[in-house]
Amino acid sequence: MSISIIIPVRNEEDAIGPCLDGLSGCTDLEILVVDGDSTDQTVREATQRGHKPILSPPGRGSQQNTGAKAASGDILLFLHSDTRLPHNFATHVRDIMQQEGIAAGAFQLAINAKGWGYRIIECGANLRSRMFSLPYGDQALFMKRDTYFAASGFPDQPIMEEVVLLSRVKKHGRIVTAPASVTTSARRWQQHGIVKTTIVNQLMLVGWALGIPPNRLARWYYKNKPW
């Protein structure tokens, strides 16, 4: 089963280079960088490494949909540019997707920083993924191409797009967590604080469950910054 890796980016000049470098030895993969109107050197960093970015309107959901439509792989894997896959990720992905009754998967979460606070976040994320079948985007979601389009792909909304997609994917089978971890950057927790970031993330999930419109949640989350 062929794998397409879709990487949505916007102003990620510091992250996209190392991300692509980490995938440079994977010759049997299709890698698509989808740029959402970057104003820094993101496109140049990707182009220098032999990847011509696909252009898309900004917004992670929209960019990932653009990448999925352009992808040719049997399996679609959505990767954040500041997340690194385990060295044997392709084996895990194929093994999981070949099992009966499984609609999608993701990896366990590890954060690239020291401190007990990050270990608690990791444990919480991995527990949520296993118990509630609700991994987040920084855990490298993957699923069969047919399942993705049968579930109508990511919604074009500014926040909680992976939660909506996974709620649709569950109708097609189970969502499982691979026995391996991706390593993601700690930058968002370092920028805004571990406690504040964690509380805000949980409030977003509660707000979505209560039916608050995504645009309203996004305005509060980003404090009126363009998404």
Report on the architecture of this protein.
It is a single chain. The chain is α/β, with parallel strands linked by helices and 227 residues long. Helices cover 43% and strands 20% of the residues. It contains 10 helices and 8 strands. The chain has helices spanning 16-22, 42-48, 60-70, 89-97, 116-132, 145-150, 161-169, 187-192, 194-209, 214-222, and strands spanning 3-9, 29-35, 54-55, 75-78, 83-84, 102-111, 142-144, 174-184. 40% of the residues are buried.
Structural descriptors:
alpha/beta, 227 residues, Spore Coat Polysaccharide Biosynthesis Protein SpsA, Chain A, 10 helices, globular
Describe the structure concisely for a colleague.
The protein is an alpha/beta fold and 227 residues long. It is built from ten helices and eight strands.
